UniProtKB/TrEMBL annotation:
This is Ribosome maturation factor RimP. The keyword Cell cycle does not apply. HAMAP family: RimP. It comes from the Bacteria. The lineage of its organism: Bacteria, Pseudomonadati, Pseudomonadota, Gammaproteobacteria, Alteromonadales.
């Protein structure tokens, strides 16, 4: 992707019954448009056809992260300190698997999310899915 001027923001592989979707999120300093997604999709398809890392049938989707961008790494969470996020956890923290709060600190592989005035410390490997909450 970098050869085309895009940053690979993240990857999701979602199974829903017999159907699977491989979702690639790309970004760039100038933003992403539909032509960028098409170019990245062609490059990814060519690589996936040769490497063949997924043996079952799947649909490839390429998109920008969008306003409610998913967050995948500690660096990405760190870029959005002070921003609101919703987090889905594998194991509950403070009795909940679904949290909404402010990203207040990232240290190593630990995230501090302030929820209703309380700081919750969450291991990044406990996060199933994290997204920014879009501001309008």
């Amino acid at each position: 992707m970098e050869g085309l001027g895009y940053q690979l923001w993240g990857i999701e592989f979602v199974k829903a019954g017999k159907h699977s979707t491989l979702r690639l999120f790309i970004d760039s300093e100038n933003g992403i448009n539909i032509e960028d997604c098409a170019n990245a999709s062609r490059q990814a398809s060519a690589i996936l056809d040769v490497e063949d890392p997924i043996t079952s049938e799947y649909t490839l989707e390429v998109s920008s992260p969008g306003l409610d961008r998913p967050l995948f790494t500690s660096e990405q969470y760190g870029m959005y300190l002070g921003e609101e996020a919703k987090i889905q956890l594998t194991m509950p923290v403070a009795g909940s698997r679904n949290l909404k709060g402010t990203i207040t600190k990232v240290e190593g592989q630990m995230l501090t999310l302030t929820v209703d005035g309380k700081d919750l410390i969450i291991a990044l490997d406990n996060i199933r899915k994290g997204n920014l909450i879009a501001k309008f």
